[in-house]
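Chapter review: from sequence to fold.
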Amino acid sequence: MIPRYQTILFFVLLLASIVMGTVLWQLRARAHQRLLAGQDSTPTQAPLVAPSEQATLYFASDAENSLQAEILTLPLPQNPSARARAILGKLLDLYAAPNAAHPVPGGAASVTQIFLLPAPVDAAGVPTPNAPAGDQQSGPQLAVVNLTGAFASSHPSGLETETLTLLSICATLRANLPHVAQVRFLVDGQTRPTLAGHADLTRIYLTADAIPTEGNHP
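The token string follows.
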């Protein structure tokens, strides 16, 4: 003879099985209806692609210890900070490429953020690190370039090669964002004494001084 509690347990389990089967059948039916109706969770609109524009990049050459301008066509966003990061990312990608004239590992991922701020200017409107900040909309700007620690630690050491990297970044920013008059470099969001033991990262760089004149080295 089957004990009464086992009989009750059997019917409870049977009832639970029936309920679960009904729920699963309803869920299957709804999923089938959504499939027939063409409803899914995928986006129906393609992501926006930035239009291609010309950008001037100043490439460093270790052999000649100089910067050379080259015009490339790149997809560039309209936001100035994003635009600056895209341009510098391309510059650093080319430095990380095989047989680069200025080989530096890291590529575009080495630039994590770029902030554009009003640059300090003196009474005559000349950018200077110790003067009050200018107008963010029309006045000169300070670009704060945040590099990764991995980029700094893997950068080739030497005053010339480190300086070329910094000046090529400054000149490229100036060529594509004319309002950028000054550049300040951070590493992982912090001030760092040097890039790889030589080039000073505690100072503010003037972009006008970075662009070479014809026949002169930076």
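Two observations follow directly from the output. The chain is about 35% helix and 20% strand. The helical segments are 4-36, 80-95, 149-154, 159-176, 207-210.
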